[in-house]
Amino acid sequence: MDVNQYLEIFLDETTEHLQNLSDQLMILENEPENEDTINEIFRAAHSLKGMAGTMGYKRMQNVTHDMENVFTEIRNGKMKVTSRLIDVLFQALDALEEYKDTIQATSDEGTNDNAAIIKELQTILDEGLGKAAPKEEAAGSEEAAPEAKAEEAGEAGGVPAAEKKWESIKLKDNEETELKNAVDKGLNIYGCTVYIQESCVLKAARAFLVFKAVEELGEIIAENPTSQDIEDEKFDFDFSIIIATEDGYDKVEAAIMSVSEIDHVVGEKMDGSAFLEKGNETEKEEAEAQEAADKEAAAKTAGAEEQKPAAKTEAAPATPAPAAGQQGAKKPAAAKPVVNRTVRVDIEKLDVLMNLVSELIIAKNSIVSVATGDGKNNSALNEQIGYLENVTTNLHESVMKVRMVPIETVVNRFPKMIRDLSKKLNKKMNLYMSGEDTELDRTVVDEIGDPLMHLLRNSADHGLESAEIRAQRGKPEAGSIFLDAYQEGNNVHIDVRDDGNGIDVEKVKAKAIERGQLTPEQTEVMSEKEIIDLLFQPSFSTAKVVTDVSGRGVGLDVVKSKIEALGGDVSVKTKLGEGSTFSVRLPLTLAIIQALMVVVGDEKYAIALGSIDTIESIARNDIKYVEAKEVITLRENVIPIVRLRPILDIEEEETEKSILTVVIVKKGDQLAGLVVDDLIGQQEVVIKSLGKYINCSSRIISGATILGDGEVALILDANVLI
Amino acid sequence: MDSTALALNDKSASVEAIQFIVIDIGDEQYGIDIKYVDNIIRMTKIRRVPNVQHYFEGVINLRGEVVPVMSLRKKAGLPDVELTDESRIIIIKIENNAPVGVIVDSVKEVVTLPVDSLEPANKNSTKTQVTYISGIGKFENRLISLLDLSAVISDKETA
User: Least CB-CB distance to B68: which of A693, A697, A706?
Assistant: First the structure.
C-alpha cells in the first residue's frame, strides 16, 4: 500500500498524540495513581503504535509497543508508577519525537533502535511483575490489548455472537450471484466485522483503507452498512464485510489490522452456500439463522433467488447498537477535546491572500489620493471611498485573524523542558504559565520558540540559585519560573520571570573589565541598565561554570537579534536576590501597520503608530543641553532629541524654524523625540521588505511601503533611534 | 554561484546557443544572459534609501513590489554620468531570489551566441573589472563582455 499520501495525516496525528503523552506524563508524575491519566497514556501509546505500524515505521512501533505493555500492567493494577519509570517514559517520548522529526525530514524513521530505552522498559516491566509472568502472555490475556484479543478471537470461537455482525448481512440479488460464483470457484469465504477505535476521527477514511487492503487479497462480496453509508460516515464504530479470497483468514485479518485505529476484527470462515440459504429463510429469527449453518445439505436448494425476502432489511439497521454499548463500557469516556470546525490551510495560500489584501489597500489608498487631489469635493465619491475603506479594513482584520495562532503551540513543550532541566541541573523548579491562548501571527509564533527557550534556560540555569543558597535566603526550595503572555494594544508581551538571584550588576561589570571590553573608569559612569544591556552582547556569559544548558555566551544576544528581527524587543528588570524579569514585546502582525507619515527634507517616511507616544510642537529655545546632547523637558520627563536630517543623510536647513515638530516615540518606558519637518497624517501602510541585497547599515530603515500615488516611502524603525 | 560561467562549461547539454541582451556602459558592450532578465524598464522615480551601500541608488515601485536598484557604473567604480532617455533599468532575477534592478546607459539589442564561440574570462588577469566578467563573446566583429550577474549583485566590490 502506498502510504505517502497519508504521511501528512500521520505526522499531524503523531504530533498530537506526542503532545498529549507529554502532558499526561507530567500529570502522572504528580499523581501516580490517576487512572484517567494512565488510561489516556495507554490509549495514546496504543494509537501511536498502530499508526507507526501502518506506516511501516518498525522502530517507532517497537518503542510504543513497550510503553503500551507497561501501561497495560499499570492499568490492571499489577505494577505501580515509579519515578524511574517516568524518567524512562520521558526518554521514550524524546526518542519518539526524534523519530517524528526524522520522518518529517526524510519520510524515513532513521536507524536509531533506541534499544536502551526498550530494554529499560522491559526491565521495569519484568521487575514490576516480579517476573511472575512472561509479558507476552500477560498482555495477550488482557482485554486491554485489543489486537491481541482480536487475534485470539479470530481463531477461537469464544467471541460473543453479538460481535459477529456479518452474520446478519442481507445479500442483494447481485451479491448473491457473486457469492455463488465464489463458492463455485472454491474460494474461501470469510465474514468479518471490523471494529474501529472510538477515538477515531476519520472513520470513513479508515474504513476505506480497510476496504482497500482487503481488496488486494480478494473480492468484497457484501458489506453492511452499504459502501455509500460508510463513505458518508453513516455508521457507528463497526462495519461488516463478506469477502471471497484464495488466502487464509490470518492474512485477511493482518491486512485489516495493518490499518491504524482499528480496534479489533471479528471474523471466521463461513459456509457460503449455507449463508445463501439462510438469507432466504425470511421468516426465521436471527438465532435460528445461525443454526442454518448445520443444514449444509438443504443449502443447495434451487430457486433461491425467486424468494426475494420482504423482511430482508428489517434486522440490519438495528445491529450496530449492542456492540457500541459494549465497547463503550470497556473504554470509559475518553477525555477527548471537542473537535473544532476547522480547515487546514497551507500558509502559502494565506500569504497570497494577505498579499491581495495588501494590494487592495494600496489601490484604495490611491483612490483616496485621486479623490482628494483634484480639489473637487464630490461627496458621493467620498462616501463610497469611506465604504471601501471600511470593507478593506475589515477584510484585512479577518485575514489577519486567520493567520493568528495561539502561542500554546510553542509554549506547551516548555513544562517538559523545565522538568528535564530540573533533573539535569539538579535544582528543584516549577514552571507556571499563563496566557497560553494569546494569539500571534503565525510567522511570529514559528520563530519565538527558540528565543523563549533560551530565556527559560537562562532563568533555570543562571537565575535560580542552588538549594543551599535558597535555604539561606529563606526562599522555598523549589524555584519558580513564570511565563506570562498577554496582549496590549498592537503588541503581545511575553514575560519570563524567576524568583532567583537576579542579575548581579557588579559581577557583570567585573566580567566586562576582565574581558577587556570596558575599563573600570567606563563602568563607573554607566547606568545599571547599560551594564545589564552588556548581557545582550555577543559572547557574554556570567556563569562561572559553563554547563551544557546555557553559559556558552550564545544565549541572550541570539535572543535579542531574533526578537528584533521579528520587529520586537527585549528588556530586563532585575533585583539582586529577588529575581529577574525578561520582557519580550512582539508586534501582532508584520504585514500591515497603522503609521504616521512624516516629511523629512523632501522625502516621506512612515513611523509605526504603535511606537509613537505623542506629537509635540517645541520652541527652539526650549531645547536644553545635557552632556552636550539636546534634550527637552516634557511633563517632567527629560527626553533626548534626535534630529532625523543628519541621520538620514539629508542636509540641514539653512535657517532653522523657531518651532520644531517633534514626534515622541517610546520603547518600553524610554522616550525620544524625533525632529521632523512636517506631518502628513495617519495611514495604513503595507510593509514591504527592502530585500536582502540592500543593506541598511544603521538599521533605521525597517522596510518600505507604496503610497497611494505609487511613490515609495520608507519605514523608520523608531526603536533603533531610542 | 557563477551562473554564466556554468553555462559556458555546460557545452554537453542541449544548450547550444545563449541569448544575451547587449547593453552599453561607456564605450564598452556587455552581455546579460537573457534567462536572468525579468524585465527592462525605462527610468522611473528612484526613492533614495539612507545608510546603504553607495552603489545602491535606492528602491523603485515595480508594479506594487519594492525593488532595490543599483548603478552598474558605481558598482564597477566607473565615473557617474547623467541619466538620459536611453537609460534603462534591467530587472534581474536569479532563480528564486528577489529581483534587483541594474541601471545601464542603454540597451542595444538581443544577440544569439553559440556556446562554443564564447571564451571564458581570463581569471588571472589583474584588471579590476574582470571579476564581474565571466566570458567574452564575439558578434559581428564586436566583442561583448559577458556579465557574471551573481558577482554583480553580490556585496563584493572591485577596489
Answer: A693
Cell representation of residue A326: 459494549
Q: How many residues does chain B have?
A: 159
pLDDT digits (tens, 9 = 90+) for A467-524: 888 888 888 888 899 999 988 766 789 999 998 888 888 888 887 888 777 788 877 8
A670 occurs within a structural domain: yes
Indicate yes or no: CB of A697 within 8 angstroms of CB of B59. Answer: no
**Residue of B52, B69, B97, B157 to mutate when probing chain A, most A C-beta within 10 A:** B52
A707 and A597 fall within a common domain: yes
List Cβ<8 Å contacts ≥24 apart for A574-577: A574/A502, A574/A503, A574/A532, A575/A502, A576/A501, A576/A502, A576/A503, A576/A504, A576/A505, A577/A473, A577/A501, A577/A502
A356 and A414, same domain (yes or no): no
Same domain? For A559 and A636 the reply is: no
Least confident range of A159-173, A283-297, A425-439: A283-297
Four-point Cα dihedral A589, A592, A598, A603, nearest 10: 120
Indicate the residue among A144, A159, A184 that finishes a domain: A144
* Domain region containing A608: 592-721
- What 3-state class would DSSP assign to A144? coil
The helix (run of H) or strand (run of E) holding residue A629 is strand A629-634
Q: Tell me the nearest-neighbour CA distance from A709 into chain B, angstroms.
A: 11
Nearest-by-Cβ selection for A693 from B50, B65, B100: B100
Per DSSP, helices labelled H in A227-346 are: 227-231, 249-257, 272-280, 286-291, 320-330
Q: Is A389 exposed, middle or buried (0-12, 13-18, 19+ CB in 10 A)?
A: middle
Task: Please name every residue paired with A404 in a beta bridge, in sequence order, or none if there are none.
Answer: A441
A107 alpha-carbon distance from chain centroid: 19
Shortest CA gap A715–chain B (Å): 10
| Residues B102, A584: Cα–Cα separation, whole Å | 40
Domains along chain B with CATH numbers: 3-153 (2.40.50.180)
3-state DSSP percent of chain A in helix, strand and coil, to 5: 50, 20, 30
Interface test with A, best of B41, B46, B47 (most A CBs within 10 A): B47
Contacts of B98 in chain A (CB under 8 A): 689, 691-693
Q: How far is A648 from chain B (nearest CA, A)?
A: 5
Residues of A with a known catalytic role: 46, 68, 458
Overall number of domains in chain A: 5
Domain boundary among A280, A299, A324: A280
Pick from B49, B56, B98: which is nearest to A692 by CB? B98
- The pLDDT of A317-342, averaged and rounded, is 43
